[in-house]
Design brief:
The protein is an alpha+beta fold and 667 residues long. The protein contains 17 helices and 17 strands. It is found in: Nucleus.
């Protein structure tokens, strides 16, 4: 068709159209660079925290994947802006136009600030004199103080699996690439963390990331220095070479230089490390913060407390109820199985051969066990998907999961809170959207350095979660759905520790920053509630016993307090009565008369009465304790049958029941 336009006009038209088009594309790297907050890189301080997290979690995943007890060394070296400038060959410049800078103050503004500070100081002094608590004076506008950022070199070294030489550039320089997309309990999942650290370094310092790595038995170490082409989402390699590895070291060592803020996030970073050490007691962590101001340096070694590692989580297959149409299509593309029967049987959990046959029968006449799976039409896939949604399948088992274990949780609580009482509970595997999960909980009461009220510690796939506490399912459940009073625990006054660890093949984090688990998945919310309640029930028994023991002690103490007075009163009455008997004013029976004689002869003294009364109080106390134990006191404890078996086993026995145990005596 002839438009009647000349080639020049056509070209111009096309260029105009291109200019007018609003359609633009973004690469994943560009998207995350623009929205770095959703990956936990909200500001320089938080970015420092998240970078450390991502590197540490990669190191642990890596060491655990080869069943190696992890040793992780983390160093944060403060470089400072001036040192950084000289590192990149930028000469420091003196300020010329002071008024250009954000922290510039006019003489008037300075006078105003000084006057305000003097007023504040005066008020503080007055408050201090009247014994009132003092508030930190707020920094005046223009003074950066805690907000000051700096440049840090973050290094993380581990003894893990290492990476294949050729894979390194993509592992660190292509957003959404990784080895943890399978259905398996791992800390990492998205294929994003390490790349975000690199994107942040590119955005804040412009410096590349450095990786040194070697796999087990490999005679060379791979060294790679790279940054990322954000628009194209591909690695931009500066150096990628093999180096000598005489000591046959295996693991990875990552160095990245980023802007951060140690001052504002120091406590969160240390808190994270401490909690990581709590939930990973089989790992050794060496944490260092190095700066020019020697007194600010930090070195902490979190020693390994056990050599027993939880079993390595296993990769599992999809549960039919958890797959969507896209996933079914992908599984069909990837499967090596030829026909529908084999496909159903081998690519999913909980579909045995006979169940697969029944499912195929239910799909209709167009389907048969021998139907080539790759020939299925889109409609047929929809039919399969619909059936997967409606049919009944056994729940996936939790065998592929590796929970931290009640023992580790208890150890952690004792280490963190030094409580007076602690109870732990490990729930059986449960399921949400076809993914198995296990909730383990520890609840404690009392302890030193613990604040009153609820102290909540959350872990997901053995990662400590420190941000967004208020929106998390654990916090909400503990605050709103547990009636602490009914377990004799005071929610506001007692020092309560709540540790909850959830593991799953899929943790439904809100956002890629892995900061909290929402409160909207009813299966998880009810499992969390149940496991906290189970701990509370155990605690209630202990607390009731403690209260009873305390009351008993108190009763004894009160009774004992009266012994002296009561004894002297009785002794006085007896003496008076004895005198009346001597004066023949009154006559008593033989036994009483003898007792009165003894009083007069000082055989029965005040001390004798005191001693007898004290013995009586002890006796009554003992009888009451026995009575309590026989009538239900001990019955709240879990009972276990103990049997004394004869060498040659006979089944003829009598059974004796006591409140605490059962004895079987064989005849
Ligand atoms: N220290 C390490 N040792 C061995 N492999 C590593 C190490 N760090 C990263 N990797 C590899 O690089 C891949 C990408 O890491 P990255 O942190 O970007 O994502 P991820 O850990 O898979 O997922 P997430 O974004 O959820 O953390 C990992 O899947 C892992 O295979």
């Amino acid at each position: 068709m002839d438009s009647g336009e000349s080639p020049v006009e056509l070209k111009k038209g096309k260029a105009k159209k291109a200019k007018e088009s609003l359609l633009k594309q973004k690469s994943p790297a560009e998207f995350f660079a623009d929205n770095k907050n959703i990956a936990g890189f909200d500001n320089p301080g938080k970015s420092l925290y998240t970078t450390i997290r991502e590197l540490v979690e990669n190191s642990l995943d890596s060491a655990e994947s080869i069943s190696q007890l992890p040793v992780v060394e983390i160093t944060i070296e403060e470089i400072g802006k001036s040192k950084f400038n000289s590192m990149i060959g930028l000469i420091d410049r003196e300020r010329v136009d002071e008024a250009l800078y954000d922290d510039f103050e006019t003489i008037k503004a300075r006078e105003k600030r000084l006057a305000k500070e003097a007023r504040q100081q005066e008020m503080q002094l007055k408050k201090a004199a009247s014994g009132k608590t003092l508030k930190e004076p707020t920094a005046a506008k223009g003074m950066k103080g805690r907000g000051e950022t700096s440049i840090y070199k973050v290094s993380c070294k581990d003894n893990g699996r290492g990476m294949a030489h050729d894979d390194i550039p993509n592992m660190f320089g292509r957003v959404l690439s990784g080895t943890k997309y399978g259905l398996k309990q791992t800390r990492g999942k998205f294929g994003l963390g390490a790349k975000m650290a690199l994107i942040w370094s590119k955005m804040s310092t412009g410096l590349p990331i450095e990786i040194l790595s070697s796999t087990r038995g490999q005679k060379f170490k791979s060294f790679c220095r790279l940054d990322i082409d954000i628009q194209r989402n591909i690695p931009h390699i500066h150096v990628h070479e093999k180096r000598e590895n005489k000591e046959l070291w295996h693991g990875a060592e990552i160095h990245v230089v980023i802007e951060g803020n140690w001052t504002t996030h120091r406590s969160k970073i240390l808190h994270y490390m401490r909690q990581m050490a709590v939930i990973t007691p089989y790992a050794e962590f060496l944490f260092k913060f190095v700066t020019d101001a020697q007194d600010k340096n930090v070195t902490i070694k979190f020693a390994r407390r056990t050599d027993v590692m939880p079993p390595v989580p296993l990769e599992t297959k999809h549960h039919p109820s958890s797959v969507d149409l896209l996933l079914i299509k992908r599984l069909i593309e990837e499967t090596s199985k030829q026909n529908l029967l084999q496909f159903l049987q081998h690519e999913f959990v909980n579909i045995g051969k006979s169940y697969a046959e029944r499912l195929i029968g239910e799909m209709g006449p167009d389907f048969g066990p021998k139907t080539p799976v790759k020939s299925l039409t889109s409609q047929q896939l929809v039919r399969i998907h619909q059936l997967f949604r409606q049919a009944k399948f056994d729940d996936p088992s939790g065998d592929c999961l590796s929970p931290a274990g009640e023992y580790n949780l208890r150890l952690g609580i004792i280490k963190e809170l030094h409580p007076d009482l602690v109870a732990t509970y490990s729930g059986s595997p449960q399921v949400f959207e076809g993914h198995p999960f296990i909730v383990e909980t520890g609840v404690s009461v009392g302890g030193k350095d613990v604040k009153q009220g609820l102290n909540i510690f959350r872990f997901a796939n053995r990662i400590p979660l420190l941000f967004e506490q208020g929106a998390d399912v654990v916090t909400r459940t503990a605050m709103k759905r547990i009636n602490w009073n009914s377990y004799k625990i005071n929610q506001t006054q007692d020092k309560i520790g709540v540790f909850v660890s959830i593991v799953s093949t899929k943790i439904p984090f809100k956002g890629t920053g892995k900061e909290y688990i929402g409160d909207d998945i009813s299966e998880i919310a009810s499992a969390v509630k149940n496991s906290i309640k189970q701990c509370c029930l155990q605690l209630k028994t202990k607390i009731v016993k403690k209260i009873q023991a305390r009351e008993q002690l108190e009763r004894k103490r009160i009774l004992k307090r009266y012994i002296t007075d009561v004894s002297s009163a009785i002794h006085g009455v007896l003496k008076e009565t004895a005198r009346l008997q001597v004066a023949k004013k009154r006559r008593y029976g033989e036994e009483d008369a003898e007792m009165l004689d003894n009083v007069l002869a000082n055989v029965i003294k005040k001390a004798t009465l005191e001693e007898k009364l004290a013995q009586h109080v002890e006796q009554v106390d003992f009888e009451m304790a026995m009575d309590f134990a026989t009538h239900g006191g001990v019955s709240e404890e879990p009972r276990e049958a103990i049997f004394l078996l004869p060498l040659e086993s006979k089944s003829d026995f009598v059974q004796l029941h006591t409140p605490a145990f059962v004895i079987r005596i064989f005849q």
